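pipeline/complex-builder :: batch 7 item 3
reading input block
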Amino acid sequence: MRVLAAILTVAAALGLGGSVLAQPAYYAGKTIEVVVPFAPGGAADVGARFVAPFLEKHVAGNPRVSVRNVPGGGSMLGASFFAANAKPDGLMVLCTTSSTVFPWMFGHPSARYDLSKMRVAMTLAFGPVVYVSPRTGVRRPADLLRPAEPLVYGGIAATGSDLPVLIAFELLRLPVKVVLGFEGRGPVRLAFERGETNLDFQFTPVYLTQVVPLVRDGKAVPLFTGGAPNARGELVLRDPVVPDLPSVFEVYRELYGSRPAGPRWRAYEAAAALTFSYGLTWWVPEGTPEAALRALYESVDRIVADREFQERAKSVTGGYPLRRGDQVEAAVRKAMQPTLDVKKWIADLLRDKYNVRF
Amino acid sequence: MVDAALNALATFASPLRLGLLLVGVLAGLVVGILPGLGGIVAISLLLPLIFRLDPPTALATLTGALAVVYTADVITSVLVGTPGSPAAAPTAMEGHALARQGQAARALAAAFLSSVAGGLLGVVGLTLSIPVARPLVMLLGSPELFSFTVLGLAYAGSLLGRSPLRGLLSGLLGLLLGLVGPAPAAAEFRYTFGQLYLLDGLSLEVLALGVFGVAEVVSLLARGGAIARQAGLGGGWWDGVRDVLTHRWLVVRGALIGVWAGILPAIGATAASWMAYGHAVATSRDRDRFGRGDVRGIVAPESANNAATAGDLIPTLLFSVPGGPAAAVILGALYAYGVYPGPRLIQDHLDLVYVIVWSFSLANILGAAVCFALSPAVARLTHIPFAWVAPPLLVTMALGAYQTTRHAGDLLALLLLGLLGWAMKRSGWPRAPLLIGFVLAKPMERYFWLTVKLHGWSWLGHPGVLAIAALIVVPPLVAAVRRARAQSRPTPGRGVGAPATDTRPEPVAVFMAAVAVLAFGLGAGQGLGFQYDARLMPLLASVPGLFLGVVQLARVVRGEPVGPVDEEGVDDDGSPQRPRVQAELYGFGVVAAYLLGVWLVGFHVASFGFVALLLWQAGKVRPPLAVLSAAAALACFQLLAAGFDLRWPTGLLLR
């Protein structure tokens, strides 16, 4: 069955390739403007700018690609700007993280954009690694339930990239004191190194370069990753970049002897999918011509096959592959529009524990 | 290490690299000169280019741009009193006062030279700190960082001016304005009034432009004539050079403050400038000239802000934690090359570190050389009628302000903050505490809550905290003792305030006090409704502010004379006359009409009309020439915008 599907896909791709050759490429002589709703220098900006030259090289027609930062309002300003200004022609692309998705999901009044009216062009993953200080006496995930000193986690804000990790703490029922309000993941890491906190997570490139030396010096103990989605979008696999570490899914099974289920697990899956698995998402408005979408999808295949991309992606993003929008769109939508009980569970957690009012 | 340093220097032998370093320097210079555009614009402009270069070349270009912004911003600050970047606000005060006395050349020379010195000292600090910075920064937890923000605020204490009441009010108002936007420790947006524009808080660039820039333009327009009140470029270049040599230790201390401020994540170049300025005031015996053109008030902050740029790179390169927004972009560029700075950087990429060190040094020297070369020409600008300079200046300010978020709110904020700055200036409120309060409000709140939540109250006994507390408490005590001793001897009284013959209330002073009372009232009223973690700072700023504001209001309503005020209020030829309120209101109306015009009919139409009208009406230029000049100016802006990828408002009505 799967072989048949693959053959059909290849045949379709060849057919489409032929038709593309027959007519001039949609993007020939055009410029794609990538709107990044964050300030220059952040993870989202770096990701968008890293991919941009590869889009120029691999989107049929070789359009010029320019990146435009529109920061503000925790990315709501830039996303609203995109919603108000982008025409459905594929020439303006929005590049978001979960910081853009969560406010929209929970109906923040300043989120004047509708992600359900946009199409996913492509996505890129971020992978988190959770680690503790050896002072806690924690050597393996199971020790987390009985730490030698109280667990203190430093974060930025409950509604940003900390959310899946905070939900994971709930799911695993860990006794953690959460202190939010840091400026960014870098300052959180410094606070960990100083001993002000003793439980932290970092994204894989930072983990590999900043935390692994600490692990070698015996100053940090890596515990688990966020996990990776299987073909059905369930977060049950190990992170391919850090395959020695168990995923949240495995840790739950180890601690409680059963598969995680229920609203907590589904809340974790949704938040983690949006923050990690599809952490960086490129969007175009609904109604964008099929020719434009196809050109973007197909560029992903060529970028992923590009040796230079593979080489550089390893150190820049951790080496996660770029994914075609048509292959992940369903999973992104599923995560963005969770069932009511899941949504309510997250909203309750945010309201009761972190004083977030929507 | 020496090998790596020399190898890195050898990389500049390539003409491409040297050329691109120059490109970076030029971009940084242009951005520095244009008010409202900060280093981040220069760097963002270069970014598309950067991602196509090899890492050393890219870093040379970026560092080159970053290094010179705080050198070039001196030009605008001195010549037109509009800070070329927020960190140059002290220079705009002191340097511009000197320019008005015909000493533009001296002020420029002193500022450029202390900038280079600060930059080079900063680089030395950067290089020396590489082995020691890590243990040092490890000592600085949230409690120490919080204490440093309080120290920064304490420095503002020496800038309160001659009316401590108005100085305090100004600082509290700055704190309150700095709290607009997301609360760091709670999920709450404060004082946003449902406006998307305010969600991130007010931008420092727009605040500095409005409070200092717009207010200055209004005064100059009202006063008419040229900027300099005396003919000739004055004392000349050598005086400025001599000033720096005379105050060499002040330059060094300024650089130390700057490097330190750069290392600390909470405190950036703007706070560094003001802290160095406060330090210069606090350590000077004779303080009469401060605010009226004191070169010590230029050399200390100029040294500090260039050094802070180098200091910013220390946490960036050692910990992958950006020291400021521009350093964040450099970090992003490094990430994009797969270089994650940190403990391994020294072992793996020492060459890159030295490329940055050399680029920074070379750029500082190159930038200052270009500035020196340009200056005789630009200093002459102070002798042509201001009405000729004002239109392009204001157009640049509008364009610059609009780049911060590219939202029409930038224009409105510029206008309202301009009104605030003008009213403060007119009513003798010092504006320095406002800016300091603004930049320190959020970091102070952030680190206070982190401290309390992570450490309870035990942090009060930390040795670092106690040391910083001593730094805060001891100097004022020493000063008080000195003053008490000095008072036993008779001192010649200084003429503070004009003789109180006129007891009618000054309308602008009443307006200013009323605005403050209203703002603090609103701040306190809304503040009560915030959740616990978001309420403390707003109430700490607005409740005392409300009381003091009412006292101030009562004073001005009773007709307390505003008198000669601390900042540039006295005309330097000694005449107590200031432009009449009506004339200044006219100037303000011109500014307002232009900004509203930009908002309504777009940048092009409004700018063209404004430049032509102002040249014709105020500049007494014949209409055909005025129209021609306006067209030429617009063409220049078009070129500038294309080169720097700037955006402008398209206009509400012309969409």
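note: Chain A has two domains: 23-125+278-337, 128-274.
queue -> next item
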